[in-house]
Fold this protein.
Amino acid sequence: MSTQPRPRLISFTFSHFCEKARWALDRLGIDYEEELWPLGLHIKLSRQLGAPQSTVPILIDGESILQGSREILDWAEHHRPGPGPNPEDAAHTQEIRAIEARADSVIAVEVRRLLFSQTLTQHPNTILEMMYGDLDDRQKKVGYALWPRVLPAMIQTLDAGPEAAPAARAKLDAELDWLDATLADGRQHLIGDCFTRADLTVASLLSPFSRRAIEHMNRGISLPPEIERDIERMEKRPAMQWVAGIYRDFR
């Protein structure tokens, strides 16, 4: 009797978009195996795979290739074992999708830009450990060899020079203002009365600035003082306290 191979999740060791995809697969009971790729080499590997873009996460299910955390979450909802999506999700689909789109396109981008603008030039070895620390020895060797070319490419592609930090912080603070206002009525979930992909998306994409989330991801990395100060400042906000609670109760 033949068995279908498990879906493969292609990811980076430290990525909030990959955390979103990983959490979705875990939450929905998908049996999968994760494969970490070295940053930089992922461009060549994704082309060899036939993926339309060079970004991760990527999910490979037989001959199907899905790219992007939102697409992987869609796939997981339709392939989950047992009952289908919660009926309440369907009743609030438009609102849930609007929050997810906002988080993907604004929150995630500014989180990444703030994180990297304060580390890529000032503390490149910290990012080196974040991105390559969990790889096997062969992959690490490749990653370290590519790093001198990857570093300037990341700064340019992500608009993550040190001068970008104030603008990224201001935009992220504006998003946290919006979340604080949304949560001001004491709700546990962003939409409706149960955990939805809106909660999963927002919490996972804010995870790099949540101590609870970082602890969950078991990243034994000493963060630079600039990032520690942002975490200390943000964690007092209702939005980040909510993120910690979502990780505690649902991750």
Q: What stands out?
A: DSSP finds twelve helices and four strands in the chain. Residues 94-250 form a domain with the Glutathione S-transferase Yfyf (Class Pi); Chain A, domain 2 fold (CATH 1.20.1050). The longest strand covers residues 8-11. The CA atoms of residues 180 and 237 lie 7 Å apart.
